[in-house]
Amino acid sequence: MTGATDRVALVTGASSGIGAATARLLATRGLRVVVNYLHSAEAAAEVVAGIEAAGGQAMAVQADVREATAVASMVEQVRAAWGGIDVLVHNALTPYAVKPFQEMTWEELGGKLDDEMRAAFAVTKAVLPAMAETGRGRIVYLGTGLSRRPREGMIALGTAKAALTQFARYLAQELGPRGITVNVVEPGPVDDTRMAADVFDAEHKRRQVAATPLGRLAHPDDVAQAVAFYAGEDNAFMTGTTAAVNGGMSMY
């Protein structure tokens, strides 16, 4: 542990992958971490146990972040135990269709857009009152490089995450005067995630690695490092920005 703090971080979708790596890293930096999950109670409990074994503080809380009432209940549970949430890392990935536009229904494209923005809206609304009251806060959304660099079959995810990134910019402008920063981390392909397992075959992964100047795909810990920077108190003057964590696969 690097030092005690009373800061509380909520990490959505934190039972595995980037979310779990972020929860563990924030805990090593002294934050008390809320490990949100939807279905994976056992995996979330393992993340909490690992954090506690290393001397940190964590709790697992189940909530579907698309449901405002479930999110409000989660935030109230955290408030009762630890007080207000100082850091929101919104990482939860809602389901999406992988197919060309010509084969896609509006329910698939519009449904992903609705899920993405509904979840971001709900969790942000729920944590803002405490942040505004204290005059400090850090909000970090997980986007994707697909929102800038299209790839076949990924129109639903890429379009939804592009909307999330623009949402973050508007919030950064509005919330800056209240001492709240809002930023986005956009990973490229990440090894060892659900998306990688569902979408990448071995040949596709080989091509992605070949297109990456640093010679490999990102690991969840690589992404967590960027998130933790944005979440830190030292990040006092960066807001409305996007960090690309892709090993140089695309540069902007």
TrEMBL record:
<protein>
    <submittedName>
        <fullName>SDR family NAD(P)-dependent oxidoreductase</fullName>
        <ecNumber>1.1.1.-</ecNumber>
    </submittedName>
</protein>
<comment type="similarity">
    <text>Belongs to the short-chain dehydrogenases/reductases (SDR) family.</text>
</comment>
<dbReference type="InterPro" id="IPR050259">
    <property type="entry name" value="SDR"/>
</dbReference>
<dbReference type="InterPro" id="IPR036291">
    <property type="entry name" value="NAD(P)-bd_dom_sf"/>
</dbReference>
<dbReference type="Pfam" id="PF13561">
    <property type="entry name" value="adh_short_C2"/>
</dbReference>
<keyword id="KW-0560">Oxidoreductase</keyword>
<dbReference type="InterPro" id="IPR002347">
    <property type="entry name" value="SDR_fam"/>
</dbReference>
<dbReference type="GO" id="GO:0016491">
    <property type="term" value="F:oxidoreductase activity"/>
</dbReference>
